Structures are given as C-alpha cells and as structure tokens.
Amino acid sequence: MAVPERRDTRPPRPQRKFFHRRKFCRFCTDSALIIDYKSPDVLRDFVTERGKIMPRRITGNCAKHQRELTTAIKRSRSIALMPFAVTEG
Asked: How many CA atoms lie within 13 A of 75 on its CB side?
C-alpha cells in the first residue's frame, strides 16, 4: 500500500536574526557605584516587583559582584530597609 505524499501549503517562515545586547557588570564598569546594604535605591534595581533577587544571567553582573549584591540585599531586608515580599493589594 502506497503512503500518500504530504504537502505543506504554508509558505516557509522567514528566519529572524536576534540582536543580543552584550550584558555587562554595572559595578565593574562604574567604579562610583558601590554595593552597600544601606542604599536600597541601588539594590532595588536588582530585585523583582515581587521582591525576589534577580539572577546573574538576567542582570549581567559578574560572579563576585552578584555574591556581594545578594548579601547586601539580605542584610538590607533583615534591618527592614527592603521588604522580604511585596504585599498584594
């Protein structure tokens, strides 16, 4: 028994070229920007709306500064400068 040949009637999709912007560590490039647990305005850029710490692959930080940033955010949370979780309301 012969199998009928399948034909696609849809035209082929055009290949999209994605532009990947190079991620860089903000703390390595700008020496005036320091990681300090007493400055929650700097730390808020690295926390989501729900209060979670953003990962390295999204922020572009280097490993050294990501570790420092994580400890600074945790210290800032423990002395109530930053919230642990955002209340829904």
From this structure: 13
